[in-house]
Amino acid sequence: MSVLTSPRGKVEVVHCRRTESQDIYCIKSLIRKFTCKLFGKINIIYLLEKANLAVTLCNDKEEIMAQATFLDYPNWNVAKQDDWVSVFRELDSDIPCTPLNTLFMHLFVAVDEYSVGCCKEILRTVYKVVPELHFIFLIVPSYMSLGSTLVTVFDQVGNIPCLTYEEDFAVHICHRHSHYPQLHIRKARVEDHDDLMPIFMRYDTILKETYGEYFLAELIEAQDEENHAVVCEVEGTAVGFMSVCSRVNMQLLHECFDLGPFHGLCFPHPDDVLESPQELSVRRSQDAELRSSSQGSQKIVEESQEPVFPDTMENIQENIAKEAASEEALTAVQSGNVSEPEDIEKLSDVSTGYAQDHHVSSRSLASLLLPEEPVHFRPIYRGASAAFCIQLFCIDEKYEARSLDFMNFVFSLFSDKNFCVISLPHLTPEFILIQNFVKMVPFSTCTLEQDLYVFHRAGLLKSIHIRFATLLDTPGVENLVSTLMLNKSILEDLDHYNKARKDPDIEYIRSHYNIEDFIYFSHHQREEHGHMHHFALNPIFRHYTKFFLKEILRLGFKSCLYYPVYPKSREGKFQNPYAHSLTSALHYLVPVRPRRQIVYPLEKLGINAPSKAVSKDPMSYALNHTNRKLTLEPKITVNAKIIVVGASSVGISFLETLVFCSHLKFNNLTLISTHGLPGKKLLDTEQRKFLASDHCFNNKDYALMSLCSWVNVVVGRMTGIDRAAKHVVLSTGEIVLYDHLILCTGQQYQVPCPTGADISQHLTNREVPNSSQQRYTGKVPCNHFTLNEEEDCFKALTWIRNNSITTEGNVIVYGNTIDTYTTVETLLNLGVSGSRIHLVQPPPASTITCINNYSVESAVADALAAAGVTIYRDAILAQWNDGLHPDPIYSASFTTPTKPFRLPCSMFFSFCEKNVDYETFKALNDTCLVYDGRLVIDTNFHTNDIAIRAAGSLTKFSNRYYSNEWTHSNFSSKEIGFQLAAAMLHLFDPTLEPVTEPPADLDRLIPMYKGAKIQGGILPGSYHYLHIAKPAIPTPLEVQMAQPNYGLEIVTGSAKNGTYFRIHINQYKMVETITCLSREPFPASNYIRLFGQHEQLLNNLCARYDENLITDLYSYFTEPWCLALFHDRFIDLRKELRQILASKEEEDLPSIEQLAHQIEDEEINLTEKPRQYLKRVFEESIYKTLVERSTLDYLRYNRYHLPMYAWPGII
After folding, report:
1. CATH code (residue 862)
2. Adjacent-strand bridge partners of 1061
3. Which of 430, 460, 490 is the last residue of a domain?
4. Domain CFAP61 dimerisation spans what residues (predicted)?
5. Can you spell out the DSSP letters for 1102-1130?
């Protein structure tokens, strides 16, 4: 906040922020004729799209006072975008302008009365947020004066001609030292104590309480050759302090952190052990192959990683004075196809924190990710320490942006050291100084509760030159990428990138990804979109990553860059052949959300179908993006350790929400899961699935998210929680530390516990003990399967194929959930004869069946009978193998209400009622988390431990809410995960509004989520089944239909014929339930979009049905008129139209919404029906025109998805 005073004495409190799209109207209102003469005719939207930095100055009422726009190349076409440096250096050789330290002002507007103060405040802010910036140029026609405002901050340095027409332009410059100067750094003196103590006390009083009032003076007095204290001063007053020491515990750092990228922070030594003997031999053979391979070779080689290029580091250390090493470490700008695959597990390993900035740190997470493997080799460094450490640092907040000014001076104090390190508690917010440091990856065995940050002396270099790569750069690039997994492909592309140049498929990107969350697509030409294949960066220059990206855009005449991350293939070994090398810039890109796609009836649409670029479905990939606007926009770093236990739909939805927060960078997201991330495609796409689907996520969704790029994955089971030490204990004995623990383990099918009843005594169900609540503690038979995840299904499929189950042996499917039906259908589809499949259903726990629709159940029962599958009802498992050793199972005995029976068994599937896994329960119970049948939470997902949250079917609401019938199981898992993330984001995202406490009377109400609850799958008879319903307490369908306010149902087709389609319309004419049963596949994702729509939106569905105009709903929803309903942005159109009708467009008349309320409250006496009255008012007012215009704009803007609609101009 700053205060501006006008010449007339008026005062305004102002602040700067980044320009937003909604500012455009106000910016236009500030443009004067003089502005156009200075800057030319300007398209504001276009300028903001291409700007590197746009700053808006607002007062305390959020009224815009001024705006300035800055780009990294000059306006008025006085020099080429990629070659302006030489032109401007010729003007004045004393101005060392470079792309790193220079920006150009392309626009400045301000409220006239405060214009001078606004201009100075904006420039001060720009110099503050861009520390490398030293010069801002302003170019205007030579015949123009700058006016009374800009002349106060800019000085003319000369004239230059225009490239396109004969006219000279005046070049003016603004220097940093006039607005936010560099700080003067010197050795600290005892008399600085009084200046510095108030700064220290503002942040912390612990040092004073621990070491006494004069601890700082004593520290300054204690300086020697190993310990130094320095200060920064402004006008003779010390405003910052840094204490440095050359004594560093290298042994502790080597034990706790992967320091390979920096050669262990030691000088090279002949006795260094950098590789294990096995790696060394593999490495030598690969090096020989790389040297001998031809330039065009496409041979696939799986590279081994090794700790890091000491030769490169040594070269940089030796040549630091000449500033020549920086060029070798820069990124080569390349294009071309890559055909070498990459190990996806290594991609996952290096997905967070510092690992993104070099490609060699997967060792540090190896034992964490794959605990069953032996501990990886760790290098041994014999050389002397090359590092000193920062012991104490503090600076006045006003000057914090210049924190890096300390580094030149402190490195001069230790001329024999090349590294500066600092360790901080990991929850310390990332202040400006350490944003220039590299965060090191800790080993999984690290016990330190602090993070280590490293800065290399070479990071101070400023004479950085970025240019297009040539073949002469091959040796330098080869040295740079020698330890990367895809070094061979990088070198091949360096050789061929001019020939193999390929721009991104931008039509596909626009139609399949929400790229318009970040850009106005129409303001970017096709050739301005770039596809990034490789980005290799020496980690000592990590803090220049955004500068490199900015230069790639400038030199390549690009405005956008895209980087795809492909999923791994079905074999689980390599990435897709189209995969590129992992970019070290990933954390500086933003992940782009995929768009939900319409499933088009292409044959029915004919020539009105979308283009193939839109409708095609190639290999899915996760898209990452940056553009000119993002190059100078920082992300908020979150170092909190967020541990998610369980890869359920809730957990995945939670992680997805956090990952796609583009302005946040989560460094410590970790998933603990028995089988790692889902989406491995273990089962073929066309193959039947053993388990029913909740339609939250599928394999394609997992590929489009690429969570492995952002989330550390720990493969293991949680067996304990230490709440005091805040760590999770795994089944392997390892621990994972947490700050926030998220429990989303859900419920699983458990191994049933036989009652032990001897069927030879002809016992019935009433005579045997109830064992449903007992836990099976014996050895699980090898041919017994409980299917909970895709890995379980894959194991079952493997067993079936390896043991000839398709040709011989009986299969028992035990349970009464929908998964029993989908499993039976899968077995039939695999070739197992129906006569050898026995569906055994235990007594139901309630009167509600898993399908809850008699028509569907009858069709499925007939299909089972036709296939020869035998069904046994109300049967309870009594014994395996007649009570003998159950492994493997040869027979299974059951009791019933009448007489028992025994079945031979080659394979036993159990789908008894789901419950919380025993190990999970024991971990929760032993740590004293409140457990009452399920883990107890409040409405904000909290357990009785503030650091532990839980969600999903694992949980129940506390009894104080008196709503035991409602749990998270009643709602959509995807929505639960999203709401959990939204609740936690308030802890990390300063841009969100503070959470207000609910009123006392509302604190006892549980949240009611609105997303549809979905289940689907392929049932016996090859019926494709889908059921979509609102969240509700389970009730038999017949009871629901008997309610007076039930509404009506619309049914077409017959379940037995496989043409059944049922829609329930509630009393408010909204679609509340959809049930489909068809022998033909149908577009389930389309039908899901129908939920919650008004029946009139469905082309007056009820009226048409009553008039017998609809005989087949499947055909009805493939007609072209309804495709807009399935469009992902249709909900935005609805909101926009609702906003129009709720807004007051005419002063003398109420809005349509207000009229509706007045009619409802009987404030208006009507002579006609209310609907007719509203329709007449609507058509006679401006609202009709506004609604039509908005609808046509929607169709026109989305015409690439919706070309089947006509609009004015194409007819």
Report:
1. 3.50.50.60
2. 1052, 1076
3. 460
4. 1007-1125
5. HHHHHTT--S-HHHHTTSGGGGGGGSTTH
Q: Which residues contact 1073 (CB under 8 A, 6 or more apart)?
A: 1027, 1028, 1029, 1030, 1062, 1063, 1064
The SS3 assignment for 87 reads helix
| Residue 312, pLDDT above cutoff 90 | no
Q: Are 150 and 214 within one domain? A: no
Of 443, 460, 477, which residue constitutes the final position of a domain? 460
Whether residue 201 sits in one domain with residue 174: no
Backbone angles phi, psi at 18, to 5 degrees: -75, 145
Its domain, for residue 417, covers 184-267+380-460
Q: What is the pLDDT of residues 528-565, one digit of tens each?
A: 999 888 888 888 999 999 999 999 999 999 999 999 88
Residue 1049 lies in a domain: no
Backbone φ and ψ of 767, nearest 5°: -100, 0
Asked if 17 and 47 sit in the same domain, the reply is yes
- Residue 147 has a CB neighbour count (10 Å cut-off) of 16
- Spatial separation of the C-alpha atoms in residues 316 and 312, rounded to whole Å: 6
Question: 138 and 188 share a domain?
Answer: no
Same domain, 86 and 218: no
In angstroms, rounded to a whole number, what is the distance separating the alpha carbons of residues 1185 and 1194?
14
Q: For the chain, how are helix, strand and coil distributed in percent, rounded to 5?
A: 35, 20, 45
- The answer to whether the CB of 153 falls within 8 A of the CB of 174 is yes
Of 1006, 671, 1020, the residue nearest 818 (C-alpha): 1020
Q: What is the CATH number of the domain that holds 134?
A: 3.40.630.30
Tokens 């802890």 belong to which residue?
987
Q: Please check the confidence at residue 1000 and state whether its pLDDT lies above 60.
A: yes
Residue type, 553: L
Q: How far is CA 55 from CA 30, 124, 943, 1085, in A?
A: 14, 11, 43, 42
Residues 174, 188, single domain; the answer is: no
With respect to residue 427, please indicate whether it lies within any of the assigned structural domains: yes
- Does the residue 655 lie in any domain? no
Verify that 1175 and 1148 share a domain, yes or no: yes
- The pair of three-digit structure tokens given for residue 125, joined into one six-digit string: 């802010």
The predicted structure's pLDDT at residue 279: 56
Among residues 108, 84, 82, which one has the least CA distance to residue 95?
84
473 versus 52: the higher-pLDDT residue is 52
Report how far residue 920's alpha carbon sits from residue 851's, in angstroms, rounded to the nearest whole number. 29
Q: How many domains does the chain have?
A: 4
Does residue 1029 carry a pLDDT above 80?
yes
pLDDT digits (tens, 9 = 90+) for 828-876: 999 999 999 999 999 988 889 999 999 999 999 999 999 999 999 999 9
Q: Which two tokens stand for residue 223?
A: 């300086």
Residue 825 within any structural domain of the chain = yes
Distance separating alpha carbons of residues 957 and 967, to the nearest angstrom: 6
* Sign of the four-CA dihedral 148, 149, 153, 159: negative
- Is residue 70 classed as helix, strand or coil in its secondary structure? strand
- What does the mean pLDDT of the chain come to? 86
* 327: number of Cβ within 10 Å: 15
Of the CA atoms within 13 Å of residue 562, those in its CB half-sphere come to 25
| Six-digit token string for 862 | 């007939």
* Mean pLDDT value of segment 262-271: 92
CB 248 within 8 A of CB 265: yes
d(CA 645, CA 745): 6
Alpha carbon separation from 228 to 14, 363, 411, 988 (Å, rounded): 40, 35, 11, 36
Does residue 648 register a pLDDT over 70?
A: yes
Q: How confident is the model at residue 375 (pLDDT cuts 50, 70, 90)?
A: low
Residue pointed to by tokens 């043991």: 803
Residue 160 shares a structural domain with residue 221: no
Consecutive H or E run containing 245: strand 237-245
C-alpha 71/C-alpha 598 separation (Å) is 39
